[in-house]
Structure formats: C-alpha cells, structure tokens
Amino acid sequence: MRPALEVADIFRAHGPAWRLAQAGHLSLGQLKVMSAIEACRTAELGGHVDRCEDCDHVQVSYNSCRNRHCPKCQGAAAQRWLEAREAELLPLAYYHVVFTLPAQIADIAFHNKAVVYDILFKAAAETLLTIAADPKHLGARIGLTAVLHTWGSALTHHPHVHCIVPGGGLSLDGQSWISCRPRFFLPVRVLSRLFRRLFLDRLAEAYAEGHLVFHGHLAGLADRAAFTARLAPLRRAEWVVYAKRPFAGPESVLAYLARYTHRVAISSTRLVRMDDNGVTFRWKDYRQDGAARRKTMTLAPPEFIRRFLIHVLPGGFHRIRHYGLLANTARAANLAKARALLGAPTPSPAPDITPETDAPAKSAIACPCCGGRMIIFEVFERGATPRTAPPTQALGIDSS
C-alpha cells in the first residue's frame, strides 16, 4: 500500500524551486536521482495494464525508475539480491561488526566521497582479515560482506560500514575449519586500533598522491602541515568499532540483510507529514536510551532535500562488497570447501523455469479483488496513456 507521504511527493512539490536556487551547485548525479524519484511509477516511465483471468478486474501498473537511491525501488532489488545470497549461507553463527569514521574524517569524506569511502571499505576489511588470521586470535582465513551507509537517523553525514562475518574460517593451510569461541568473534579494542592505523595511513597516502580536494572551511587542509596537524590527534583517539551480538541463525542474517543492504537515507514510512512548517519525519536519538530516543524532526523542505542528496553515491561506486573467502573471484570454491569441512549439504540450485511461449505474460501481482492471476495484456511506452484503462485507475504498482 502506498504511504500517505513519499519522498517523491516532497521532490515534486519543492524540487523545482530547489533546483533553481542551487543552480550550478548540484552534481549531475544528484539531478538524475531527483528526476528518477519524481518519475518513478508514473506515466512518465510507461507501464502496462493488467487484467485478472477470473474476475476481469483491470488496473494500471507504472514502471519503476530502478535508481538505487529511490525508496520505492529498493525493496524489489533487495529481494533479488537476497535470493542469490541465501544459497551462500553457512550453518554457523554470523557476527555483525560496524566501523565508523570520526566526525573530523567525515568532513573530509564529504568532499572526497569516492576516495574516502573506498579507503573505509578497504581498511575495515583488512582489519578483520588481519586480526582473524593472527594465531593469537583466530588463526583463520575468513570472509565478510560489507555494506556502506553514509547517514545517521537525522539524515546527517555519518559514514560507516556494516560487516557481516561468518563465525570462523579456513585454517591457514586450508585443511580444516576453525570456529570462533561461542558468542565472541574478535576483540573490539584490537580491531579499533588496527582500523585507525590502516585508515589514517591510507588517507595520508591519498593526500600525498594528490587524490584529495578541499573546499570551503576545509580549504586550509591543502597545506600539508595543516593536514598533518588535523590527523595528529586522531592517531591517539579511540575510534568506534562496534561488535553486535551474533545473529540467532542464518534466517536472522537474511532478515538483517533485507533491511540493510539496499536501504536508502530515509524510507517513506518514516515520513509523518509535509505542511507549512516543513517536512516532519521520525528519527532515533542514539544519545538517549529506550523509548526516549524515538523522536520527530521537522526540516524546511530545502534542508530536507539537501540532506537527502548528500547521500547520493558517486557513479559506479559499489556500496556492497565482499572480501576474503567471500570475494567474488573465488567465492563458490571457498564456500564448497567450507561446506565440505563443516559437513554441510550443498544447497540445491534454483529451478530453471522456462515460461510457455504461447501463454500470456503473467503479472508480478495477484488480483486485489479475488486473488486470481493477473495477465499483462497491454504495454505502453514512456509518457503514453494506456488505451484500455484510464490513468485514474493506476495503483502505482512496480512493474519493473
């Protein structure tokens, strides 16, 4: 069911004025995201008409924009991604480790997203792989899936990566499986300090190679002495690495991934209202405990749009990455070996379903009246009007 208020509604109402006010200051990527979200599941993208085989109910379904920043499109994308991951889960405990950048680094990342986010990924992954391989800790080659989030609950810039890690790995000689201790993966303090060193060393290298730029109040960091002075206290500060309780089982891992892998800065379900006071949405204040942390915040529409758009990722940047045993190049072989050592059965491949060539195309939805099968019997192009049903019948259903 369509939420009463969507991010697209805010963009349509206030986007034109925002574009005009920010002319010359918005990236092409941000402009494309705005346009995609505004057009998503409207006649502008075309669609098809469905008719129920049983009761002849007719409805229009408009196409999705499929933009990875669109709140409406990510549910289906997450489901497709999860179906591929389900067969890769191993029958053991999984752990969740979060690596967060300090505010002083987040400021630098804001102007150097591709470079600094990439360093964040690599430093977090190398930290886990290095400490796990140390015989003093686990002494094993592990794998992990890392997911980048760049936002806090209030839409502020808060870069961090969520790492999902199987609770064990292959021995260094590859001949056995080594499991971690029950309910304990790796020491957080050790992870934090290695992560700090690896990240700052890589950031200094990027600076020395001229890969960082500085604007506005950070312009002074173009001077090497100023940049070095900014990093100096961070080499002594405690960095936040948070190890959550292990997941209850593979099913809970999938449930978590479903919520996190394709999440965008804010979903429409968190929106409360849009009125003369601005845009009101729900958020969590993590500085407080319990129910007190659940609050509402009202932002002027231009500020809401600005906060949403600062989380648009650079073009081609991968926000979900796999490392170690789960790296794409050798994942299948590593998982097969792990299953053999664990005595776990090989998952059955997904059935290859070949549709009947003379059958009408089946819609992705069931009839809302009787639950029967909906058949696609008309497709219309972008900007066109369906011949069979008036646009007023549109339910805004994703037909992508």
Describe it:
This protein has helices at residues 7-21, 28-39, 74-86, 103-111, 113-133, 188-208, 224-231, 250-260, 301-309, 331-342; strands at 47-52, 58-62, 94-100, 140-141, 143-151, 157-166, 168-171, 177-179, 241-243, 271-275, 278-284, 294-299, 320-324, 362-366, 373-380. With 400 residues, it is α+β, with helices and mostly antiparallel strands. The strands form four sheets. A five-stranded antiparallel sheet has the order 9-3-6-5-13, with helices on both faces. Helix 3 (74-86) packs antiparallel against helix 8, helix 4 (103-111) packs across helix 5 (113-133) and helix 5 packs across helix 6 (188-208). The chain is globular and about 70 Å long. The chain starts with 6 loop residues before the first helix and ends in a 20-residue tail after the last strand.
Q: In short, what is this structure?
A:
This protein has 400 residues and is of the alpha+beta class.
Give me the number of helical elements: 10
Rounded to the nearest angstrom, the distance between the terminal CA atoms is 17 Å
Mean pLDDT: 87
Strand content: 15-25%
Radius of gyration: 24 Å
The ordered H/E elements are HHEEHEHHEEEEEHHEHEEEHEHEE
Q: Which stretches are poorly predicted, pLDDT < 50 over at least 5 residues?
A: 350-359, 391-400
Which key terms come to mind for this protein?
disordered C terminus; five-stranded antiparallel β-sheet; alpha+beta; 33% helix; four-stranded antiparallel β-sheet
Set out the fold topology.
Blueprint: H1 7-21, H2 28-39, E1 47-52, E2 58-62, H3 74-86, E3 94-100, H4 103-111, H5 113-133, E4 140-141, E5 143-151, E6 157-166, E7 168-171, E8 177-179, H6 188-208, H7 224-231, E9 241-243, H8 250-260, E10 271-275, E11 278-284, E12 294-299, H9 301-309, E13 320-324, H10 331-342, E14 362-366, E15 373-380
Antiparallel strand pairs: 1-2, 1-15, 3-6, 3-9, 4-7, 5-6, 5-13, 7-8, 10-11, 11-12, 14-15
Helix pairs in contact: 1-2, 3-8, 4-5, 5-6
